[in-house]
Amino acid sequence: MGYYQDFIVKPGSQVKLRDIDPDYKDGLTKEKAEEQLAKNLKKLQALQEMLYAEHKRALLVCLQAIDGGGKDGTIRGVFGPLNPQGSRVASFKQPSTLERDHDFLWRAHRDTPVLGEICIFNRSHYEDVLVVRVRNLRPEKIWRRHYDQINDFERNLSENGTHVLKFFLHISKEEQLQRFKDRLDDPAKHWKIAESDYTERERWDEYRKAFEDALEKCSTDYAPWFVIPSNKKWFRNLAVSEILIKYLEDLDMKYPKPQVDVDAIRKKYFNGKK
Ligand code: AMP
Ligand code: MG
After folding, report:
1. Where are the domains of the chain?
2. Average pLDDT, whole number, for the chain?
3. 65 and 172 Cβ atoms separated by less than 8 Å
4. 203 lines ligand 1 (CB under 6 A)
5. How far apart are CA 15 and CA 213, in angstroms?
6. Ligand 1: does its nearest atom lie under 6 Å from the Cβ of 99?
7. Is the Cβ atom of 28 under 6 angstroms away from ligand 1?
């Protein structure tokens, strides 16, 4: 259960992604990890049920990674088994005209979860300090301000009942190429291939720097970042699930008190029988 502490980016600390092993698997085998994941998913389902019943707070999970990093796979593997009544995915693509005509946080705020809900951001408002920065889509003067604006936004969410957890799925450049190759070899995955996967790959180091800055500047007590070793998909899913469980268990959630007199109903309609 140490993954929460192992992978959290301590607020104010420096992040050197080159020093973090994307192949890390905690000495586990795939079989062991999948066994544990199956148990974790059951726990997660129970915790989600409680969050939904309680209707007191929301959970926002942001997933970021380089192309091929495994955001879609994490959503399927960890969040797929959740009750769809109470969870939702929002994907952040290139902004539409309407989105572009608003401040960059508008579309993120629009998609934040309601009380009792879990919302997963597949990419997020962080694109505005990642692709926007690396691709020079807006002047530096503008995107430099985004870090503070993101922190203010996330503080606002957290002070109003929305818990924010952010996962950076960390893969190696070689693993990315292997995954792109797998996509080429599998006709069912051709639709996923984008020219930009390859052009952005040439900017690997610039992306790494941009990710490091986002992780350093925006990992806070109220909205922490976690760097998840993700070359092994099964370890990635296990680690994300463990962190979610630890976080949700620490909330010490309670089912709401019944709105009826349970004993009286049992007496009246079931002769008091249990
Ligand atoms: P995918 O997640 O593979 O469907 O790709 C979505 C694409 O939209 C990625 O290339 C992102 O970098 C891009 N994207 C997401 N947010 C923004 C943004 N704010 N500005 C420009 N491009 C973005
Ligand atoms: Mg893509």
Report:
1. 3-270
2. 97
3. no
4. no
5. 8
6. no
7. no
- Here the tokens at position 190 are 């051709």
Residue 131 Cβ contacting ligand 1 at under 6 Å: yes
The tens digit of pLDDT for each residue in 155-170 reads 999 999 999 999 999 9
Please give the pLDDT value at position 272: 83
Tell me the sheet residues that pair with 169: 65, 228
Structure tokens at 83: 């009750």
Full DSSP string of the chain: -THHHHHB--TT----GGGS-TT--TT--HHHHHHHHHHHHHHHHHHHHHHHHH-S-EEEEEEEESTTSSHHHHIIIIITTS-STTEEEEE--SPPHHHHTS-TTHHHHHTPPPTT-EEEEES-GGGGGTHHHHTT-S-HHHHHHHHHHHHHHHHHHHHTTEEEEEEEEE--HHHHHHHHHHHHH-GGGGGG--HHHHHHHTTHHHHHHHHHHHHHHH--SSS-EEEEE-SSHHHHHHHHHHHHHHHHHHT---PPPPSS-HHHHHHHHHTT--
- Nearest partner of 239 among 248, 230, 247, judged by Cα: 230
pLDDT at 117 over 60: yes
For the domain made up of 3-270, the CATH class stated in words is alpha beta
**Six-digit token pair at 69?**
């990093």
User: How remote is the CA of residue 68 from the centroid of ligand 2, in Å?
Assistant: 7
Mutate to test the pocket of ligand 1, among 75, 92, 106, 169 (most ligand atoms within 8 A of CB): 92
Terminal-to-terminal C-alpha distance of the chain: 38
Q: 155 alpha carbon to ligand 1 midpoint, in Å?
A: 24
Is 83's C-beta closer than 6 angstroms to any atom of ligand 1? no
pLDDT score recorded for residue 273: 80
